[in-house]
Amino acid sequence: MVAIGISEFTFGYAFLYEQTNRHWGNLRAAPILPSLQQEAEQGWDAHLPTNGIDYYYQFKLSDYLYTGNAKYIRENIYSSPYFRIAFHKNENNRQHRRLKAHAELHPNTYYVAPEITFEDDFNDIFLNRQVTEHSRLFPLIDCDDVYDGEQHYITFQKDISDWNQHSDNKTHRISIQGRSLQKAYDESARQMKRLDKTFAEDLFTKTAENVRKIIDTERIMGWPEKEEPIQKLLDERITRESKNNIVKRVSQILSIFYGLTLVIIYER
């Protein structure tokens, strides 16, 4: 097994940096980063798009397994090397369940993982602006639900769209290879909305209602309640807030509760 030797934060930063600086035909990407609220708001104000669509990314790391004693080669699921990303299994895979619930309302929600082998050097990939080409996106809407505390994985092979979710070893057909991401953005451009205050208010309302619903469900199931930091973000009124501040607050909720990064794809 080979780990690429970077953190999820580093990979996510590199992916978002490249998204921000690329021209996707007539489209651009604007990440809304809660850890850089002031800078993000200034950039958002200066380049306020008219029309756009919301995407949601959670960044994962992948291991590259290539020897004959790798579990899924040994079990004849694969006959050649593969990548593996692991779910966070704490509290009965709570994060994955939350992401699934979010994806039901927001189909453009993805796990994003690097597709890098031991022959690739991440620093060279980053400096050559090829992080996107060495990434894979898995739609949460297509993932299976997980309700236990076991370790679950997604596995996939280089340049093959199919992927498997374990432990049930269920094959899925659709993922986005990084080199095809512009095509996905182009196709979603047909669904763009006007990014006005109504959009921001609807985004906040839908996000807040879903978070409250998940918290109530988890409370009924008897899972630990650890949502104090987010309650103020959910309860404060947004009536007099600017659309920029509303979107910023949504990005904070997404980061704290789901571990998601909000990215707006918009027309230049």
Output the keywords.
268 residues; alpha+beta; globular; six-stranded antiparallel β-sheet
Alpha-carbon distance between the two ends: 42 Å
- Strand segment tally: 13
What's the average pLDDT?
89
Instruction: Name the overall outline.
Output: globular
State the helical fraction.
25-40%
Helix and strand element order: EHEHEEHEHEHEEEEEHEHHHE
Oligomerization state of this entry? single chain
Specify the structural class.
Answer: alpha+beta
Return residue spans where pLDDT drops below 50 for at least 5 consecutive residues. 36-47
Task: State the gist of this model.
Helix content is 40%, strand content 22%. The chain has 268 residues and is of the alpha+beta class.
How is this structure best described in words?
A hairpin with a 6-residue loop joins strand 8 and strand 9. Helix content is 40%, strand content 22%. Mean pLDDT is 89; it is low at 36-47. The chain has nine helices and 13 strands. The protein has one domain. The radius of gyration is 19 Å and the shape is globular. The N and C termini lie far apart (42 Å). It has helices at residues 8-21, 37-46, 71-74, 90-105, 122-127, 181-188, 197-221, 228-235, 243-258; strands at 2-3, 27-32, 51-59, 63-65, 82-86, 109-114, 135-139, 153-156, 163-166, 170-172, 176-177, 193-194, 261-267. With 268 residues, it is α+β, with helices and mostly antiparallel strands.
